[in-house]
Every structure is written in structure tokens, then in C-alpha cells.
Amino acid sequence: MSRWLSNPDILVEQGAVHRGFAERGDLAGLARSVMEAACHNGCMTGPGAEAMAWLRQLPDRDRLELAGIWAEWHARTTPADAPSAEAFRRNTSYLRAELLVVATGVARGLDPDLMAGERQAVLTELAGQHVAFGHREWELADAEIEAGRIPGPEVLATLRRTVIDYHAEPALREVLTRFPGPVLNPGEAWADQALEDAAAGGEPWHRLLGHRAPVSAGVPSAKWLDAGRDLLDAAGPESVRRSAHRWFELVGRERSVPLRGSRGPAAYDPYNAQALRALAWLLSLLPPRDDTCDALARLVETSLRALPGSGAYPVRVAEAGVVALTRIGTADARLELDGLRRHVTHKTVLRRIDRALAA
Q1: 3-state DSSP call for residue 194?
Q2: In whole angstroms, how large is the CA radius of gyration of the chain?
């Protein structure tokens, strides 16, 4: 079965069945109907966003009773009167995951302690994963945030990476707007140093690091550059230059927090990569200097090297370095581009270099 439901008409049909149980006052039947839908639709769909919104509009007493039914099913390893996993055509771990997420979502705002220990255990396991690929774990994080128990930055980091690298679920994006945490994901040497420097530099530095490159943009817009100039002025242009040079030197170093997942423990962080792209673009706004051109060229080279145990590398960071050198446009910048042209083999980056040199 797919992780996503491909036919949205099924959600409409399921919703009609759910409403029938609710109108008859059959909460036990509704609980089973919702769980049948959740197990049928795939772990990234569950009952569906509209069904969850409808369930949260039920009277508080009914919501708590439904959540209590699911919590009881979750707690029973060999339920005598609760449906078995086989009845839902899923294994026990799948059913328990859906029971936890759906009960949490329906009871959110009413009983913050219902299944709190179970939520926190799942989020502890989520911390350090490259991406979240289970059962909508961001809903568990959202419940903890609403309860005033903010999950750690490692959980936030996983969800940030999930949006970029795996699944841009609108509900996940919304949760991230409410999830406080550091401006970069800790765990990479350069990001750890940048966070330390920003803590010393104060709010202007946090805002600078938060001025991220848009994921889909190949080059900075005029609006983005205008905002960048203001941020550079606030943080101190030459201080930013010196710090960025140091941070670039740390890119690709051994991670302080290894990741778990298919890309290996040393994988680059795609969320932090957007900040690296932005820093490269920001350097192109400063008065030209040969050491900055050298730092950008070395960033391009580093970003095209796969890390040990990880076959992936941040090509977009390398492209941002080329864009920055192109924007600088001095003889030193063209010299660095010419040097890169002789040994870069990645076709996309090479085409960008060729266009820059031909201009």
C-alpha cells in the first residue's frame, strides 16, 4: 500500500461514513471507522486533514471519549474486545502508530497528558533521523508544543530536513512556524560555529543567518539582495566576511551529531545548505577581495565532494558559490572560475561556470 492516498474521492466517502456513526451517537463505531480509514489511506495521509478537522469540531466530551478508546486500544497488546491489527489489514506496529497520532490529534487542546509518554518516546527516536518517514510525527511534535513541552532541536532539525528533502506537507510547514529553535540545525561543524558566533553577536547575526536562500531560486532576487544589504550593515560587513570565511573552512568536516538514515551518518544537512547558499550570495555584496574569491572557490570544491559514508553532496551550494563569483566579476573572481572550469566535472555546475566565463 502507498504511503499517500492517491484518490481523494475516497476521503469524501469515508467522511460520509464517519458522520453517519456520529449522527447515531455510536462513538465506538466512529472510532473503528476512523481507524479503518487511517490504516487504508497510508501513513502520510491517515484519516485525512479534513476528517481530522471535523473530528476536532465534535463536542469536547465526544473527542475525549474517542481519544480514550484509541488510547485503550494502543495500550492493549492482545486486546480482547478491541479490533486486532489484522482486522485493519496492517501489522501491530502500524496500527499502534496510527492510534497514537489520531488520538493525539483529536484530543489536542483538551488533555495534554493523554499518551504524552508515548508521544515523547516516538519523538526521541525521531531525533537524529535524516527525515521523518513514519506516521506524520509532526502532529506529535505539535501536540507537545501546544502543551508547553517543546521538543529538542534535534527533532526540529529532522522536521526541517523533511520539508526540503522528502515531503513538503502543508501541515508540517505550519507546525514549523510554531516550533521555536536555533536558526541553524546543530550538528555540522560550520553550523555549530556559526551558532556560537551568532550567540555572541546578538540579534543582527541571528537575523543574518535566518536570511536563507529560497529553495527554488537559482540566483538571488533584487528584493532578497536589498534585504541582505541591510542585514550586512546591521551585523558589520567585514565581521560577516571574516566569519563566513571561517565557516566555509569548516564545511564538510565531521559532524558533531551523526545522522541516521539512508544518506549515512555524515550527510550534509539540506536545511543548513540553504543558509550556506545565502552566505555565498551575501559575500558578493561586499567590496571585492581576492581572499573572498578564494573562499568561494574552495566552497564550490568542497560542496562537490561526497562525504565518507554518504554519496550525496550539496550541489546547490556549489552553484551558489559560482553565482557569487559571477556577481563579483573581478579579474580575481574570473581567475577562480577559470580554475574551477578545469577540474569541475558536475555538468550543471560546469554549465553555470561556462556561462559566467562567456559573459
Answers
A1: helix
A2: 24
| H or E segment and range at residue 51 | helix 49-55
- pLDDT score for 84: 65
Task: Quickly list DSSP for 120-131.
Answer: HHHHHHHTTBSS
- Give residue-wise pLDDT tens across range 69-87: 999 999 985 555 556 667 7
As beta bridge partners, residue 129 has 260
Distance (Å, whole) CA 315 – CA 301 = 10
Q: How many Å apart are CA 316 and CA 229, to the nearest integer?
A: 22
Q: For 1-14, how does the pLDDT look when each residue is reduced to its tens digit (9 = 90+)?
A: 457 777 888 999 99
Residue 280: is it exposed, middle or buried by C-beta count within 10 angstroms (0-12/13-18/19+)?
buried
Residue pointed to by grid coordinates 501513513: 43
Q: What is the pLDDT of residues 260-277, one digit of tens each?
A: 887 788 789 999 999 999
**Cα(174)–Cα(166) distance, rounded to whole angstroms?**
16
Q: Which three cell numbers stand for residue 243?
A: 566569519
Rounded Cα distance, 38 and 157, in Å: 27
pLDDT in tens, 276-288: 999 999 999 999 9
Domain boundaries, the chain: 9-177, 189-358
| 120 phi-psi bin (left φ>0, alpha ψ -120 to 50, beta other) | alpha
Q: Are 273 and 316 in contact (CB under 8 A)?
A: yes
In which element (H, E) is residue 317 found?
Answer: helix 315-328
Lowest-confidence range among 81-95, 114-128, 187-201, 317-331?
Answer: 81-95
Grid cell 480509514 in the structure block, residue: 37
Reading the block at residue 199, the C-alpha cell is 550567540
Q: What is the DSSP string of 259-286?
A: -BSTT-TT---HHHHHHHHHHHHHHTTS
Give the dihedral sign, CA 129/130/136/137. Answer: positive
**pTM of this structure:** 0.91
